[in-house]
Amino acid sequence: MPLRRLRCVTACVLFTWATPGVAGDEVMIARGKALVEEKCARCHAIGRDDKSPHEKAPPFREVVEIYPSEDLAESLAEGIVSGHPDMPVFKLDPPDIEAFLGYLNSLSENP
Question: Distance from the CA of 57 to the CA of which of 39, 50, 85, 95 falls in 20 to 30 A?
Fold first, then answer.
């Protein structure tokens, strides 16, 4: 199976697992929130109504409305890269991606 197709299949599987209502796993979402607090909260707003500490970092409640989870899953697996130099590059393993996306999806206004 070509690598790109394998990544897409992996992203779709992770998206399915991480979608609230499908997984509905509060433990997974709590783990995702802990990851987001550790890796992202110094710049991004990570809640439903907080303000991003870094003016150019979009709140995660907006990110989840703009970017489909399957696209984020692939980026998180390969190493997410941003257009601004302040954002560190990091990779997550599949269980952490599942938790991260589970938390992000919990912020969505359109579950």
Answer: 95
Is residue 2's pLDDT more than 80?
no
Q: How far is CA 35 from CA 7, 14, 99, 104, in A?
A: 22, 16, 8, 11
**Domain ranges in the chain?**
3-106
Distance CA 10, CA 70 (A): 9
The rounded distance, in Å, linking the Cα atoms of 44 and 59 is 5
Helix runs in 40-93, H state only: 60-66, 69-78
| C-alpha span between 104 and 59 (Å, rounded) | 11
Tokens 């509060």 appear where?
26
Phi/psi at 97 (5° precision): -60, -45
pTM of the prediction? 0.72
